[in-house]
């Protein structure tokens, strides 16, 4: 599959991390300014790279879902997308997997799954991860 490059820049943002998983991350615009910690503590949760990736992927995918549904004359503005990001060991070290669940009001199960699969084709996060990590999709009526 050929590399897809950006032909027209619409937005650029930079973030800087120091200290790795137990450090700090901040964006140049100041919106993100977080101490990081190792994942897994439910009693004292802290942000970690997987948390940030899950939030970004869920938001991007929801936007892609709204785009493809809108092209079909459907309003999915009340839909939600949950990105469940798994971090774990692989044969070559560590890796990620993602499960995306789109809950779409006003559609049946078949239409929800079809729209979810169409969103996966156009979502920039899905394009970036395709062929690199396992991503499962589930569209369901809300």
If you had to describe this structure to a student in words, what would you say it looks like?
The protein has helices at about 50-70, 110-120, 125-130, and strands at about 15-20, 25, 35, 80-90, 95-105, 135-140. It has about 140 residues and is α+β, with helices and mostly antiparallel strands. The chain has 2 domains: about 1-40, N-terminal domain of TfIIb (Single Sheet), CATH 2.20.25; about 50-140, GMP Synthetase, Chain A, domain 3 (2-Layer Sandwich), CATH 3.30.300. A 3-stranded antiparallel beta sheet has the order 1-2-3, with no helix packed on it. The chain has a 3-stranded mixed beta sheet with strand order 4-5-6. A hairpin with a 5-residue loop joins strand 2 (about 25) and strand 3. The chain is globular and about 45 Å long. The model has no long low-confidence stretch (mean pLDDT about 95).
H/E element sequence? EEEHEEHHE
CATH C-level class of the largest domain is: Alpha Beta
* CATH architecture annotation of the largest domain: 2-Layer Sandwich
List unreliable stretches of 5+ residues. Answer: none
Q: Order the strands across the largest sheet as they lie in space.
A: 1-2-3
Question: Given the helix and strand composition, which structural class is it?
Answer: alpha+beta
Average pLDDT for all residues: 93
The count of DSSP E runs of length 2 or more, i.e. the number of strands, is: 6
Distance between the termini: 35 Å
Whole-number count of domains: 2
Proportion of residues in helical segments: 25-40%
Number of helices: 3
Largest sheet: 3 strands, antiparallel
What is the H level of CATH, i.e. the homologous superfamily of the largest domain? K homology (KH) domain
- Beta content comes to 25-35%
CATH fold-type name of the largest domain: GMP Synthetase, Chain A, domain 3
Shape: globular
